Amino acid sequence: MSILKVNMTQREVVSEPFPNDKIVGGRAMIDYLLTEYGIPSAHPLAPESIFVAAPGLLAGSGAPQSGRISFGGKSPLTGGIKEANAGGTAGHKLGRLGIRAIMVEGKADEWHILKIDSSGAKLEPAGDIVGMKNYPACDKLRERYGEKIAIIIIGPAGEMRMANSTVAVTDPEDRPARHAGRGGVGAMMGAKGLKAIVIDSNGTSVRKAVDGEAFKAAAKKAAEAIQNGPLTEIMHTLGTNVCIDADGDRGSLPSYNHRHGAFEKRKGLCSNTMIELNNARGGSMGNSCMPGCLVKCSPIFHDADGNHVTSALEYETVAMLGANLGIDDLDAVARMDRQCDELGLDTIETGCAIGILNDAGIFEFGDAAKAEAYIEEMGKGTPMGRILGSGVTGTAHMFGIDRIPAVKGQGIPAHSARSLKGWAVTYATSPQGADHTAGVVEDDPLSPVGQVERSRKQQIATAAMDATGLCMFTFIDGQPELIAPMIAALYGVEWAAADFEELGKEMLRQERAFNIKAGIGPEADGLPDWMRKEPLPPTDAVFDVPQEELQQLFNF
Amino acid sequence: MSILKVNMTQREVVSEPFPNDKIVGGRAMIDYLLTEYGIPSAHPLAPESIFVAAPGLLAGSGAPQSGRISFGGKSPLTGGIKEANAGGTAGHKLGRLGIRAIMVEGKADEWHILKIDSSGAKLEPAGDIVGMKNYPACDKLRERYGEKIAIIIIGPAGEMRMANSTVAVTDPEDRPARHAGRGGVGAMMGAKGLKAIVIDSNGTSVRKAVDGEAFKAAAKKAAEAIQNGPLTEIMHTLGTNVCIDADGDRGSLPSYNHRHGAFEKRKGLCSNTMIELNNARGGSMGNSCMPGCLVKCSPIFHDADGNHVTSALEYETVAMLGANLGIDDLDAVARMDRQCDELGLDTIETGCAIGILNDAGIFEFGDAAKAEAYIEEMGKGTPMGRILGSGVTGTAHMFGIDRIPAVKGQGIPAHSARSLKGWAVTYATSPQGADHTAGVVEDDPLSPVGQVERSRKQQIATAAMDATGLCMFTFIDGQPELIAPMIAALYGVEWAAADFEELGKEMLRQERAFNIKAGIGPEADGLPDWMRKEPLPPTDAVFDVPQEELQQLFNF
User: Fold this and answer.
1) I need a labelling partner for B480 at 20 to 30 A (CA). Which of A67, A222, B52, B164 fits?
2) Is A260 a domain residue?
3) CB contact under 8 A, A399 and B382
C-alpha cells in the first residue's frame, strides 16, 4: 500500500510505498506524519504546514463499521496537533485503492480538486464549485465525475480558512453530511488550495487479508460482539440524541451558554420528539453513516412538508445549537445543522460561539431566527461572520469576554464538564483540546476521585481506536482482544492486545510532544478557572479534580 | 510608603505599608505583585486577575526624568505577563503621595473612578465620562476635581476590553497623550470597571531622600551625564521621528505591511517635514512628557489652521500608521494618532492590524481615509472594529492570514526585525512579546553573530531601568553607576551597580516563570517562521539567528 504525497505549490502528486508492517492509520497516521514532517513552529495555515487525510487501519477490509477517516495537521483553533474523523464512504474506498494516507503540503494559488481512481491520482482545477456550499458542490462533482464517487470537501468556511471549519465526507446517500468537525481541519485543507478530493474506487475489490481465514473469523467475532453490544440497540432506535434526556437527567446537558445542565424545555429536542416527527414526515432513525455499519445510529430529518432537511442530526448538534442557545425548536436546529453542513462549520463550536454572544449582550436565548442569521453571516464572511467563524475563543477575544467554555482554544462539547468529572478530565488534558470523543468516562460522574486514572485508560484506548477506522460506538472501552486479531490477520503481522495499548500510548506521546514544540506547555492542561468556581445547576457541581492530579495523566 | 489595594468587587480601598528596603518599583513592582498575587491560569480579564499601576523607584524625588509609570498584569494580547509604561505627570504625583503601587482586583459592575489625594483614596461613580473619548473625558474630570490633577484613564477601547487598548496618562499640558500602549493594559483596567484614576498631590512636596546630600550629588551627576548624553541633542531637536530617516537608511523602516524596509515616500513623514510644518503652523518639537525631563523629545503637532491635533507624534506611530500602511501624509497620520489617543488604542498594534488587511484584500496601501475610518470603527465597536481592536494576531486569525508580524501575539514594532538582528532577538525572546523598549540592540545589525549576548545584556539593563521610572533615553545602556547611587541615597540602603543588574535579572526570571505557568513555554520564543524565509528589501535580510541560540538567552 502507499501514501499519496501531494505538493500543491508544485502541483505534483507522488505515490510512495508505505511499509506494510508499520501499523499506523487514521489518527495514528496523522501523529506519525506530523512527527516526521510537521513543523511545530509554523503557522497552521502556512504552506509549510501539512494536511493529512488517512483512513483507518481496517479501511477497505470486511471488518464491521471500520470506514472512518481521519483528517488533521496543526490546528488553527488550538495551535496544536489535531485530528478529527468522520464516517462516510471515503475511508473504505481509499482502503480498496490501497492508499493509507494523503499528505498535502505547499499551497496552490488557485483552487484544485484531487481526483483519485484506480489509475492514479491527479490535481485538476476546481472550476465552478469554488465558493459553493457543500450540497450543490457535491451535485456538480457527481455530474463531472460520475455517481459512484466518494467526496471529501470543504465549504465556504474552509475556503475562508475559518478556525471553525470542517471537512465533509459524503455518506451512503451521497450527501456531504459526515463532518470531521473539530479544530478547523477545513481551514487546513483550504490553506492548501484544495477544495475537494474525489475518490472513485471503480474496479477495485474488498482488501484481501494476508491471513484470510483468521481475518474472517476475527471479523465475525467482532461483528457478533457489536450486535450484542450494550449501546447498539439503543443507538439504533433512539440515535445519539438519546443523550438529550440522559444528560438532561444527570445535569450534564449544556444549556444557556453552559450556565445550566438540564434544559427545562428539552422535550422539544429529545429523541422521542425526533422520532414522532420522523414518523409523521418520512424522516428516519437508524441510518448508517458508512458501509458495513451494524449500529446504524443516524437520523435523517425531514421538514413539515416531508422534504429532507438534514442528515446526521446528532446529540452534540442538538444540544449545542438547541439547549445551549435556549432553543427548543427541533426544526430550527435541523435547519442550522444543514447550514453548518452546507458551509462546513462545526456545530459544537458554532453553538459555543453563538452562546457567548449572550454575555456580549447581543444574543437573547431562544432567538432561533437570530442564531440562523448568524450562521448565514458566517457563510458570507462578514466581519461578524468571521468572528463567529473563528470559534468560541476567538469570539470571546473579540468581545472581551473572560468566561470562555473552551480548553486549548476549542469549545467544550455537550457532555457538560462539571457534572461529568471524568469526561471533564479528558477535556482538560487531551492534546486535542476539549474533545468529547477523546476518552469517554461516565463512572461516578460527580466525584473527583479516580477520574484521572479512568480518563488515562480511556484516552489510550480511544486513541488506538481512532487508528483503526472503527467507530467509537463499536467498542466504547476499546476491547483490544476483539480488534487486534483483525489487524494482525489483515496485515499478516504479530499484533496483540498489548500492541493496541502501546499504539494508543505512543500516539498520545507524539501528540503531546508536538504540542510542546508548538509552544503549548503542560500548564495548558486544565479546565478554565471559572469552572472550578461557578456551580452548574441542577447538580451545582464545580470541577474539583486537583490540578496536580491532572498533571499526572501522562505518566505512563 | 504604601501600596493601595483596591478591591472593585467590594468597593474597598486599603492602604498597606510597603517595606522601604524592598527595592522594587515600576515594572519590577508589577513582576513582584504578579508573582505574589497573580493567577497565571486565570483569564486576563477575569475578576481574579490583578491590574497594577506602579510609579518607578525614583518617583516624586528630584531625580531627573524619573516620572515614568508602569501598568501591567496578565495580558489579553499575549496571554502572559505584561508591563507597559508612560510618561506624564501621574508617576511623580504618586511618588509625592507616598504610593508605591496601586493593585486592583475584582470587578465592579458599574464604572468607577479612583480618587487619590493627600487625605486618602476612594472609589467614586464614574458618571458621565463613561463611553467618552479621552480628551473630553479629561476635560470633564478637571471640571469635577480641579485643574491641578493628573489623570490615568482608559478610552472606549479599554471599556470594550479590546486587547489593543491603552492606559493614557495626562501630560504637562494636561492632555491624555502619554500612553502605556502595549499588551492591552487598557482592557486590564477596563475589566475591573475602573475608568480613571485621578491624582491630586496638592499639599505634598518633593520626596525627601534618606541621605539628602548624597542624593543631591548623585542626581546632579546623573543630570550632567544626561545633558551630555549622545542622544539628548538629537532627540530634542529632531524627536524620535528622526528614525524615519535613520531606519529608512538602514532598511529597517517597516513599510507596506512589513514587506519593505525603506519607504520610498518617507520624505512626507520625516522629522524635517514635521519641523517645517511645526514652524509654519505653531506646533513645536522638543516638549517634555513629564516634569523633570532634560531630553524633551516630544513634538506637538498642529493642523494647517494652526489648531492642535496631537501631542507625542513619535516615530513608532509615524512608521506604523504611515510607512507600514503606505501612507506619506503626515496630517493624516497625526489625525490617526489623535484618534488612537482619544479611543485608547496602541498605534503600533493598530498599524500592524490595518496593514495585514492588505493581505485580506480589503485595504489598499496609501488609503488614509480608509485607515482613519477603520480606527473610527474600533471606537464604535462594530464587528470590524472589534476585530482590529483585538490587535494584529486576532485580526489575522479572523481573516485566516498566516503571515503575521507578531511575537507572542503582539505586533512587531517599527525597528524592523530582519534588518536589525540584535533588536530582533529582543522581540523574539522578551517575556513581554515583540517590544521595542525591552532591549535596544543596534550593533552590527545585519549579522546574526553575538546578538543573543547583546540582547541579553540590554534586556537585563532595560528591565532594571523600567523599575526606576527613568526614561530609556536617559541612559540607553543602563549606566548603573549613575543610577544606583540615587536609589541608595533616596531609600537609605546599600544598593550598588551589581544590585541594579541583579534586579534586572530577577525581573526577567519572574516574568518568564509567570509565562510558563500561564502555559507559554520557552518554545514560544522566536520570530515568526516566515521572517526566516522572506527577505526584506532593500537589505534583503532574513532573520537567521539560530533558534538554539535564542534558547540560550535566559541562561544567566
Assistant:
1) B52
2) no
3) no
Cross-chain CB nearest to A48 (options B160, B382, B529): B529
Q: How confident is the model at residue A473 (pLDDT cuts 50, 70, 90)?
A: confident
CB contact under 8 Å between A520 and B517, yes or no, is no
Whole-prediction pTM value? 0.97
Question: Are residues B407 and B427 in contact, defined by beta-carbon separation less than 8 angstroms?
Answer: yes
For chain A, what percent of residues have pLDDT higher than 70? 100
CB contact under 8 A, B387 and A404: no
Q: How many domains does chain B have?
A: 1
| Residue range B70-120, pLDDT digits in tens | 999 999 999 999 999 999 999 999 999 999 999 999 999 999 999 999 999
Q: Which of B389, B435, B391 is nearest to B412 (CA)?
A: B435
Tens digit of each residue's pLDDT (9 = 90 or more) over B283-295: 999 999 999 999 9
Q: How many CB pairs below 8 A link A and B?
A: 121
d(CA B424, CA B445): 9
Q: Which of A189, A58, A48, A165 has its CA nearest to residue A113?
A: A189
Work out the burial of residue A532: count CB atoms within 10 Å of its CB; fewer than 13 is exposed, 13-18 middle, 19 or more buried: middle
- Beta carbons within 8 Å of B243's beta carbon, 6+ residues apart: B253, B315, B319, B414, B415
Question: Region A206-214: what's the mean pLDDT?
Answer: 97
Q: What average pLDDT does range B10-15 have in this prediction?
A: 98
Q: Looking at CA atoms only, how far is residue B403 from chain A in angstroms?
A: 8
Q: Residues near A530 by Cβ (< 8 Å), separated by ≥ 6?
A: A402, A403, B43, B46
Contact A111, A126 (CB under 8 A): yes
Q: Say whether pLDDT at A365 is over 90.
A: yes
What's the CA gap between A515 and B217, in Å, rounded? 55
**In this structure, which amino acid lies at residue B152?**
I
Residue A35 is part of which domain span?
A: 2-199
Cell match 463611553: residue? Answer: B131
Residue B545 located in a structural domain = no
What chain A residue is nearest to B191 in terms of C-alpha separation? A400
d(CA A288, CA A541): 36
Q: Is the pLDDT of residue A476 over 80?
A: no
Within-domain flag for A452: no
Predicted confidence band of residue A521 (pLDDT cuts 50, 70, 90) = confident
Q: Where are the alpha helices (DSSP H) in A400-521?
A: 421-429, 451-468, 480-491, 497-517
Separation CA B77–CA B395 (nearest Å):
12
Q: Which residue of B has its CA nearest to A518?
A: B523
Instruction: Say if the Cβ atoms of A46 and B387 lie within 8 Å.
Output: no
Taking the C-alpha atoms of residue A436 and residue A432, their distance in angstroms, rounded to an integer, is 10
Evaluate whether residue A464 is within a structural domain.
no
* Of B383, B400, B526, Cβ closest to residue A387: B383
Give, in order, the Cα–Cα distances in Å from B440 to each of B273, B348, B414, B458, B510: 26, 17, 12, 6, 21
**CA A411/CA A429 separation, integer angstroms:** 14
Strand partners, A284: A300
**Is the separation of the CB atoms in A69 and A94 below 8 Å?**
yes
**CA nearest B82: which of B462, B432, B463?**
B432
ipTM of the assembly?
Answer: 0.95
| Contact residues on chain B for A388, CB-CB shorter than 8 A | none
Q: What's the CATH number where B153 sits?
A: 3.60.9.10
d(Cα A340, Cα A344) in Å, to the nearest integer?
Answer: 6
* Contact list, A160 vs chain B (CB under 8 Å): 400
Mean pLDDT of chain B, nearest integer: 97
With contact defined as beta carbons under 8 Å apart, do A464 and A503 qualify?
Answer: yes
**pLDDT tier for residue B551 given thresholds of 50, 70 and 90:** very high
pLDDT band at A152 (very low <50, low <70, confident <90, very high): very high
Query: Would you say the C-alpha torsion A264, A270, A276, A280 has a positive or negative sign?
Result: positive
